[in-house]
Amino acid sequence: MKDFPNKTILPKIGEKLTFSIGQDGQKIKAINIVRLEFPNQPEKNHAIPERIVSRSKRTSKQAHESGGLFGTVLVVIIVGVIGYFVYGFIQDFLHRSELANQPVTTETLQIANQQVKSNPNHFKCDGRIHCSQMNSKDEADWFAQNCPGTRMDGDGDGDACESDSRW
Q1: How many structural domains compose the chain?
Q2: Tens digit of each residue's pLDDT (9 = 90 or more) over 48-83
Q3: 148 is in which domain, residue-wise?
Q4: Residue 38: inside a domain, yes or no?
Q5: For residues 68 and 80, is the Cβ–Cβ distance under 8 A?
Q6: Residue 149 domain-assigned?
Q7: Residues near 33 by Cβ (< 8 Å), separated by ≥ 6?
């Protein structure tokens, strides 16, 4: 019934028709139904009407011309930027893995142990720069030798806070 042409006029019992038999999935059904009693009926044409075809061709042509190139360039740029960041991330990861798996040389161990021994009191550069901020002469000497921007050795002889009366 849904494939019946001219749906505005209901079919009648005994009406003359011609049709072909076709298959829809596993069902057999009538296709290309023509009502012989209605000669003015247009043939069932599945083609799209001309005015719709021409409009859709124009629309797709405009979309292809105006947005097509811009869209393509935009996609290429986005893919390139994403690829750049992914590549950098992978390279950084591989470099870190390589460094982590590197064997520690005896020279590196000697340097590390020497630095630990050179600071037995575990002083840290914490921004103090004046003698009045120091707690001991050893701390003042260590700060003057190891921390940048200190103002504790006025004459530059390596002896920090030499005129401080506290020690």
Answers
A1: 1
A2: 555 555 555 555 555 555 568 899 999 999 999 999
A3: 118-153
A4: no
A5: no
A6: yes
A7: 3, 4, 5, 17, 18, 19, 44
